[in-house]
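Human:
Take a look at this sequence-structure pair and walk me through the tokens.
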Amino acid sequence: MYLQRMALICGGTALVILLLGAGGAAAMMIGPAHASVAPTSQGLQMASSSLKIQATIHLGKTPSSGAYDTSNGEVYISNQGSNNVTVINSKTFKTSSIPVGKNPADIVFDPSNGHLYVTNLNSSNVSIISGSTNKVTATIGLGTGSHPDFAYVFPSNGNVLVLSNLSLTKATTAWIIANSTNKVTTLTLGLGLYALATYSPTTDDFYIPNYYSDTISVIAANGALSNLTLPAPPVSLAYDPGSGWVILTLVPFGKTPSSVLGITSSNTLTAPVGIPTSAGVFLGTNGLYDSYNNRLYFVSYNFTTNTSYEVPVTPSASLGGALISLGKGLFFASYLDPANKDVYVGGLNSDRIAVMDNASKVVKNLTTKQPVPFLVYDPNLKDMFGAGFVNKATPSILYAITSKNVVSTITVGDYAVAYFYDPTDKDVWVVCIGSNTIDVVS
């Protein structure tokens, strides 16, 4: 289970959209339609669904991130506005509160020791919570003014990687907190546009893009740091399990064309491959890997024509075919439905979801009443779920999409920008930042 967080960063002609899965690499992604059958427009066909809100759970102020403790079955939500963590019993929905530092940003569960790590953005420290007692057992100082933000766990040894909050004036700082001793190793990375990490199980490394340094920082589980020099600023990253490579998208600041390249399993760079200028620039921080056709898909957007594209990339880091047009509007992220092998692409300013089949053809557009940028798959119902991204004063609509593309809806709380699936209780949890609540849907 993970909670997604979203932020927008605008600079020059580049718009970068961040999507984080707390405790691991983020999941995303995506582009002229060459379909043999023209894409159809499908309205909201109400399915005979029995979806219900099982509970509405009140949180602290401004929930920002969440984690699921697989050992005790509890959900933990960090609340930036109230300096605490809400603990939710996933069966009874009863809650308790744990005070932490100032403005807790991210929270991650470490299964190797049963601890949860909370980054306190304005306390310059990390709170460690024991999952067995739900008490803070240690507070790890990282230095005055450090502003720790995103956190990740190395699966191999349980060490925790923490990245500092975005700074455009100095290099990103990272810290490794040792699993057993809480010893801290401080690392200085490059000058980045954002500070998110992508994990490679092949190399057991995390990769952090440094946009303004034209480098990628590679951090090993033991804390070793190396930097790879790139021919242009990096934006999106994705791990390709077919080749064991990490694929990068490069977006020169204020220039075109964008390009892609690969980091091999020996951490060497391939030559960049340019994409057509009509595709514009890449968006997002990660690509979607389609295990059914062994391609990666990245989002790109042409600011002049207001057109979004899916850019297919093969494991060799070459382009994997013609661009796939998603049509007008700013599309954001793609998700794979294993029930029908289709890819669903949500947008930020377009009230529709594009559906792309296994042959990389856009075959359908599902109209929605609100923009739906994020989706999550429910393997129990075999449905895709997406919440309307509106504002803090308007209730969001949760959309359930079956594998036959029949859509049903249910109204949830305000500003539902994050949600996740609970595999134990088979519920979909919708985090509503505007109303400071979670709606549990099943």
Notes: Residues 4-43+64-368 form a domain with the Methylamine Dehydrogenase; Chain H fold (CATH 2.130.10.10). Residues 1-48 have pLDDT under 50 and may be disordered.
